[in-house]
């Protein structure tokens, strides 16, 4: 169950990161509200996952899901640049996540 909590926490991290971008520096109400709610949910689920998962493993995977997910959302929906270097960096993060899960 902890891994499910961690996955959901990572997905909510993507939501709050994108909502933060859409909030335009907290000047837009609804994106700011979505950011706050999803941030609280993400932290709560991370805390539940950390009941049984090691701190390092949980934190690395949580931030990795958020980083790679935000990267992909930026490319697919926000028109951010797709370069070989950025893709290589995302692949390395995913490789690190897989290695951490296996460790």
What can you tell me about this protein's structure?
The chain has 4 helices and no strands. 82% of the residues lie in helices and 0% in strands. α1 (2-22) packs antiparallel against α2 (29-49), α1 (2-22) packs across α3 and α3 packs antiparallel against α4. The chain is flat and about 40 Å long. It has helices at residues 2-22, 29-49, 55-77, 84-102. The two termini are 18 Å apart. With 103 residues, the protein is mostly helical.
**Individual helix count:** 4
Query: Over the alpha carbons, how many angstroms does the gyration radius reach?
Result: 14 Å
Structural class: mainly alpha
**Per DSSP, what share of the residues sits in E-state strands of 2 or more residues?**
under 5%
Order of helices and strands: HHHH
Beta strands, count: 0
Measure the end-to-end span.
18 Å
Shape: flat
| Portion of residues within helices | over 70%
Major beta sheet summary: none
Unreliable segments (pLDDT under 50, ≥5 consecutive)? none
What's the average pLDDT?
96
Features:
4 helices; 103 residues; 82% helix; 0% strand; mainly alpha
List the helices and strands and how they pair.
Elements: H1 2-22, H2 29-49, H3 55-77, H4 84-102
In brief, what are we looking at here?
The protein has 103 residues and is mostly helical. It has helices at 2-22, 29-49, 55-77, 84-102. α1 packs across α3 (55-77) and α3 packs antiparallel against α4 (84-102).
